[in-house]
Batch of 2 targets.
Target 1
Amino acid sequence: MEYGRALELQRALVEKRKRGEIPDQLLIVEHPHVITLGRNGKPSNLLASEEVLRRAGISFFPIERGGDITYHGPGQIVGYPIFDLREWKRDVVAYVRTLEEVIIGALSDFGIAAGRLEGFTGCWVDGRKIAAIGVHISRWVTSHGFALNVTTDLSYFQYIVPCGLTKPVTSMAELGVAAPRAEVIESLTRHFALNFGIEIVKREIETEEAVWSMS
Amino acid sequence: MVDVVMPQMGESIVEGTLTRWLKKPGDRVERDEPLFEISTDKVDTEIPAPAAGILKETLVEEGKTVAINTVVARIDETGDGTGAAAAPPAEAPAAPAPAPPAPPAAERPPEQPPVRTEPAPVAPPPAAAPEEPIGPLSPLVRRMAREHNIDLRQIKGTGAGGRITRQDVENYLAQREAREARPAPPPPAAAPPTPAPAPPPAAPEIAPPPPRVEAAKTRVEPMSIMRSKIAEHMVLSKRTSAHVTTVHKIDMTRVARIRARHKEEVKARYGYSLTYLPFITRAAAEALRAFPLCNASVEGNNIIYHNEINIGIAVALENGLIVPVIRNADEKNVLGLQRAIADLAARARSRQLKPDEVQGGTFSITNFGSFGSLFGTPIINQPQVAILGVGAVEKTPVVTEDDAIAIREISLIGLTFDHRLIDGAYADQFMQKVKSILQNWSEEIL
């Protein structure tokens, strides 16, 4: 799903969720190559000029989530939970820790021992980042979320890797795990249900992309 | 007056970083309208206003971290604050305006934001008028005043009821510019002459804000992304590490001879030139094995010893630099290192490096000698703790052990190290090792 379209969809779902018209949603998608810059991210962390990005077929979006700069692309599972935290726990840090727990749990299903790195939100395997997290909250309703590298072509991270200063990235494939995307999604949703104490109903919106309704 | 406080966004959270004000003092805010943003741990949260009114003041700057329940702003609920407050009633078409008929729409530019339709919280207070020295102002005029830093008391309104119109502001601005454009009086040595008779000021004796006249003595250009990234890292490194540099004089004559002997053959067989750098890298890798503290990093109160020796080689680019990494440099011979250096440098210059080729370095070498520098004090590449700076190899007269004077290929090679972790004696022992390897180079096999 194009990043811009997913953004619109998220915004629409957030508005509906705020008005209480829909239950919690979990949007799971895959994006074409895109680099997004969080509100508080420094544009300087983008290493390539927008011209270079355009030539490489990568779009660029400055957006309103937390966190700095990140890359999304094929082979990644991107999850956007639209949750009303008032119905769960009014605690943004607990929310982020639970997102990490969900991903760590799902990875362990595939024999990958991921963990946390104190002070660095996200999920890590041996000092390499396998999943990124960046969240926006408005009136306790969450948007944006996480991106898990399944078979991501990691060379695309070079456009945002400045002079070897940041920590390296990895993917399930790089760690030698050839997991079908659908199985990883299945595992993620199971751990979502487990950790957030919810039930999940799958609802396809387009081929290979789905909104997962919570109830 | 309603206090706006830093909210608690979770049980364990005791403070928050205010990242952005979404409203400015003087702005009207509605209840539950996003007022500012805070950031905790990769989560951005919009905080809504607790009440409707005029944002009187913000007490915390963007970027500051404050404890929860700290008052960050005040909202004036009565909405009858200064000029900013009095206007909305006048422009709400539905509200019965006490003022003369609202000025014709033509006065407002089309791009003006739609007029708020919510009824004014209280009936337009007639009492407000006397307190308002300059009469009601349109949002446009207020914005122009803010943007151009105009004291509206200096402007005489020509609109209905003495109201200040956009035209008035534009006229005032034109006058001000004309004033500012005049050459400044010659810098007076002592008592300045009485000010030249300026065109009659629009208002008496209130000094306008200091004019911002840019002379063309500078040229402004935004930094490239790489430039600002480098700038950031250099300052970060200086702030992080306690930099100390020690310089050793190293006789490269033996290496120079070996190099001269194999240069042609290497060029012919492998297609790259044989430089001094792979010899120095090889010596450094060997010394790092003996002095592992130079191949470590600091994390909190822990020393992280790296089992791999991954040496970054600083490569100058047209407008910056990058430090690609030779992994397991200690497992390569001189030719392998030369190949790696040539390959990484070429691909660095054509921006073809893969991300993991610029990551994971445990030590760095910078060869400013190739630009003629004798010795330098480079900045450590974080999170490493040492960097070797290589000066130019130059023919130099030296006094030999038997008190003769000989011509030798001398290079000043320095180690800049992080004194948090490495003491001077240790650094010098490391350098002695490097020196000993280079001066007694014995391997005929490269």
Target 2
Amino acid sequence: MTESYDDRGGEADGEGSTAGPPRWVKVFGIIALVLVVLVVVMLLVGGNHGPGRHVGDGADSHSSSSNVDQAGAGVGREPPAGVHTR
Amino acid sequence: MPPRVRKFVLTAHVASSVGWLGAVGVFLALAIAGLTADDAQVVRAVYLAMDSIAWFVLVPLSLASLLTGLVQALAGKWGLFRHYWVIVKLGINLVASVVLLLYMQTLSYLAGLATEPTLSDGLSPVLHAGAALLLLLVATTLSVYKPAGMTRYGQRKQRQRPGPRAL
């Protein structure tokens, strides 16, 4: 594995030394940008994404939380501290 | 870095990174099982297992991968900001680790509610694990192929000193 590092290193250095970012970097950048925009849109539209989405303050977070209590699962469970402030 | 230490760090980095990838695959399989199961006890078992795997396998492996990758880059010949593929891998590792740590709160809470047979958020672990698997596959591919491309910083460094082959 280390040997392959050495081999590829020589090629990579030579190809990347004359121009700006190679094409694959630009493609990766565009894909990353699209994904970031997608996540932001989901956050704005959905408004219910993130680590605190499941942690309820009762009525609005978990539609079937009453079922959980009936089954005895949610009894005594407290949401993680500092997670959900909505 | 002495060759012995370098090989040890490289071995630790490969082991933790590939181990992380495999663990995410197991996590995704469990998440799909939890999503499709009808039996409440199966769902409960799956979510409890996912919680344990996440805390005791995913989180340690992700942090180990990040740490050994940083040591490998900074103390080795590749550098952290000289090659685009190293920067992309670092970004993937950071994003995946941060999202994993943020998601742990959700996962622990889901595990606490695991007896609910109609868990409404069953798709969430599948989506997160699927995205993580894709990201880690990309990182692994970058590690093996090391596509060409040096940053301006790397080019400057290369002009100042002998290239990585000589280091």
